[in-house]
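Protein in question passed on here:
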Amino acid sequence: MSLHKHNLSIYTHLAPVYDDVMRNVDYEDWADFIDALIVEHNEEARSVLELGCGTGTLSLLLDELDVYDITATDISPEMLQVARDKADFQQAKVTFEQVDFTDIRLNGPYDVVFLVFDGINYLTTPESVTRVMQRVRSILTPETGIFILDFTTPHNSQRNAEDMNDEGVTPDNWRFVRVSRFLEAEKLHYNEFTLEKLSDKEVVLSRHREVHVQRVYTLAEMRGFAREAGFAILAEYDGFDMVPATANSDRVTLVLQ
């Protein structure tokens, strides 16, 4: 996922352990879901832009379908390097570019733009969400282009914040600890990562700390931002299922046009 410039450093040290931190995510199902949304809402789509691609896993899986011309972007050079290494190994055709999704300087047009992994929750003001949506709308293929995004809601943070606490050691000797906490009054969800590089004898060689701050939004709020940006809402899905979202959904996927 991508961030505005003043938060760039938070993916500097997390990049080498990111795939391990996300090890429980079923990326194949997620990619199948995105493909299903494209087929449902813009079947003729070919040009696809991913914003906040992180280490590129989703775009690389979509590339395996051999249907789309994919550009995947992120602001973090460290995350992109991991993505490019994976693409080289897989001989994938995805184009990776460094792009800040709060300042998209691409012309398009793109048939599909998608921003997932609750990347939009890193925008902590309503104004910034609307601005990003407006910019995305400007680079979509007129009349047929779609914007797919997901976001987490206050319900998710209220119910699951403590379950997000995690720790582990990667195969290349990075130890990570993730502490999750939700400040309900401020609608801000914090994920603090402590990252330690270990020697073969488990001596700490370096230690780093990253704090990720996200704002949670309700479905009603996101509907308002989308309409203010000039979008029509084609669909609202509960999480990653083709069932309608509700005000009580933990995560919502929107398809906008």
